[in-house]
Amino acid sequence: MLATAISSAALAFEKDDLILRAGLATVSPDESSSNILVGGSDLGVALGVDNNTQLGLNFAWFFADNMNLEVLAATPFKHDVNFSVTDPLGTGNQLGEVTHLPPTITVNYYFNDPSSAFQPYIGAGLNYTIFFDEDFTAANEAIGLADLSLDDSFGLAAQFGVDYMLNETWFLNGSVRWIDIDTEASFNLSGTEGAVNSIEIDPLVYTVSVGYRF
Question: Going from the N-terminus, what domains does the chain have, and what CATH number goes with each?
Answer without folding.
Answer: 2-213 (2.40.160.20)
